[in-house]
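Researcher: Next entry in the queue.
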Amino acid sequence: MDILNNVRFFIPLFLIVFSCSNERKNSSQYMLVSKNTVGEEEYNNVYKRVNDTTGFWCENKLESMQGEIMWRYYIDSLLCFNRTKDRFITNILVPCQDKLCTQDEIKLLCGEKINGVWYFFSGNSTLAIPRENYQNDVHKPLSYIQLHQIALKEVYGGYLNDKGEINEAWFTNHFESIGWCSTCKTRDEFEKVHLKAVRDKWKYKTTSAPL
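Model: Structure for this entry, 211 residues:
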């Protein structure tokens, strides 16, 4: 009976260790491919601009950043650039600090270079992450590492194809889907919609969330 119990406990532990190891491998591979595509200096420069921009959004109390204003947030260290170096996808990781919270958020953040200028805007998805699926204490926020590992599986999984090459269809799906525009046919048309999203972000500000 003890042997059977040990086997039952060993298998889930093995799967957890294997899963975490596999996610770390994916993270390293994704970042290596992305940095090799744009160069490490450009990667770091864009990452700094993303941090500066989201900080500026919070300082100006934009409504779309209400959770980030109220609680601590992280910009995921992984920026997935496309082959033409003019689009990337990352995430804002938001661990809710409210004592009543039982879930955290992963918010898609897109970057696009239009006419030589980088613009950042929210993607069309926010993932609510129930803590009970990842730890026993549902009132303790998930860590950066936990949220990053979840994003690797739930968001970044389509970045590379089976050959380890950048999957452009993944970017097309995120930047040129019907969720953005049901009548757009060309990239130029979608870019206009994205620029509108950048402008519209400033239309709504919150007064309820303290800095």
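Model: Confidence is low (pLDDT under 50) at residues 1-21.
Researcher: Noted, moving on.
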